[in-house]
Every structure is written in structure tokens, then in C-alpha cells.
Specification:
The protein is mainly α. Helices cover about 50% and strands about 0% of the residues. The protein has one domain. Bound molecules: iron/sulfur cluster. The site of iron/sulfur cluster has 14 residues, from α2 and α3.
Length: about 100
């Protein structure tokens, strides 16, 4: 998946096809990542799992360094870990 993310161009129309457009925005912005928020995160991830623009969304969040919310099916902490590897890979590719 990370390799594919590096190859994707950032497009502007992916939001039009986002699965989450039919859900309350709050669902994707849980208060924390433990306790009651875990159920909310699970529900949000289920929506993301069905989303056809998941990779575009995740790439956008990595590029923009979005710190809050669920993007591309990943929590903030999950993206933080992925972003470190993604930046390192991008630096390696671009020299
Ligand atoms: S991956 Fe999730 S948060 Fe991103 S556009 Fe799709 S449904 Fe929305």
C-alpha cells in the first residue's frame, strides 16, 4: 500500500466519491483513541473500508499532516507511524 501511495497523484475530485459523505463528520473525529472512542473508531473504519477513494484520502492526510480524525481508515496514531516511514521512503526516492 505504501508504494501505491507514493505513486498516486493528489487529485481534487476524490472527496466527491468519499463514502463518508453520507455520515456525520463527528463519526470520524473521535475524542481520543481509547474507551468509548474505540467503538466510534471501529465504526468509522468500517465506512473507510468500503470507500473507493481510501488511498487518495490517506495520501492527502499524509501530505497535509492531518493530526486529528480518521483519514484513509487510519487513526492519528496509526498515521503518525506510517507518515514517518512514508517520508523516509519519499526522501529515499527523491534523493
Ligand atoms: S477513507 Fe474514510 S475518511 Fe477518507 S474519504 Fe473514505 S470514508 Fe472518508
Amino acid at each position: 500500500m505504501e508504494t501505491r501511495l507514493l505513486e498516486l497523484e493528489i487529485s481534487t475530485d476524490w472527496r466527491e466519491r468519499a463514502e463518508c459523505r453520507d455520515y456525520p463528520t463527528d463519526l470520524f473525529f473521535p475524542a481520543g483513541e481509547t474507551g468509548p472512542a474505540e467503538i466510534q473508531i471501529k465504526q468509522a473504519k468500517e465506512v473507510c473500508a468500503r470507500c473507493e477513494v481510501r488511498d487518495d484520502c490517506l495520501l492527502y492526510a499524509l501530505e497535509a499532516n492531518q493530526r486529528d480524525g480518521i483519514w484513509g481508515g487510519l487513526t492519528s496514531d496509526e498515521r503518525k507511524r506510517l507518515r514517518r516511514r512514508w517520508l523516509a521512503e519519499r526522501r529515499r526516492r527523491t534523493g
